[in-house]
Amino acid sequence: MKITLKVQKFDPEKDKKPYYKSYELDMEPMDRVLDALNKAKWDEDGTLTYRKSCAHGVCGSDAMRINGKNALACKVLIKDCGSKITLEPMLGFEVVKDLAVEMKSFFKKFKSVKPYLINQDPPPAKERRQSPKELDKFDDTTKCIMCGACTTSCPTFWADKDYIGPAAIVASHRFLFDSRDDADEERLAMMNDADSVWKCHTVFNCVDACPRNIEITKAIGEVKQKLLYDSF
Amino acid sequence: MQGNVAGGRGRPQDKFELRAWFFMRISGVILAVLAIGHLFIMHVFNSIENIDYQFVVERWKTPFWRTYDFVMLVLAMMHGTNGIRVLIGDYVRSPGKKLFALSSLYTLSFIILALGAIILFTFKAVG
After folding, report:
1. Model confidence at B48, in pLDDT bands (50, 70, 90)?
2. Which candidate in B2, B4, B24 is best for mutational testing of the A interface (most A CBs within 10 A)?
3. Domain architecture of chain B: domains with CATH
4. Is the pTM of this model over 0.95?
């Protein structure tokens, strides 16, 4: 099928403001948007810039706005986009070039919630055991691939860059509800920050954007609930 | 003051935001009941044809309806004011503009709340 791939282009060293460039391509309906981008770059315009790595929805490198909605270019099929596909960088980050954005601030916030197991007890001989019921409490939030699609779809984040964003809260939830982690107090203090969970106004954009279908707003709600119960 | 998380501005141990969030949940539920009750009384069981000065006199003869209206007034004003406070926190970035916006909001909300309360508690039927 013939498609028009309209891509927002911007080179901060040359351009004053972003502009759109269209590529007329012949693609298969079952091809992915990433395939179209590759075809445009390899056959027509070597300057076209975007991130990609695994190309199988695992690494989270190619998150971008596809027809206005955040998604991974390697997970969206051409047939689901129609013949005119508009690609733009994720909102709220500085554009490095074309579709590649500067994600340092995103990872800084992610790291600040200590997204790793904290347990002061000496490790047991085998493993730290956990029942399936205990795993269920945080299993969903283990699926995050740190692509940034949720945080950059959040209107609060667009307006307030100090908001840590849904991805960092999801990372905190993953350990806060893990029975093997014993840093609840520290994690809850982080989540109680004025720029943390209380900045979430349950808009649900993040849930729509997540390529791993994580129930992000529910997870944020569970953190709020835990903070509430712990305050009594 | 640096907050607990990257980018955070502070008040890490402060329970204000937690309480404000909880207040919004509770007041929202109470307001839904009170406002639907108000809607039925004013627009279903009665109408603009029979709501007049005498209607208000009859209604405010009992402390129950004055309390009902006062609770609705206080909760609606606090709920709404807190909602706008949150929006200002999200969208007004400059500290000066934020101070002005919040000062204006609190002043206006207080005036409306005080006027409503004065009318509710000092109303006396004439004639």
Report:
1. confident
2. B4
3. 15-42+50-122 (1.20.1300.10)
4. no
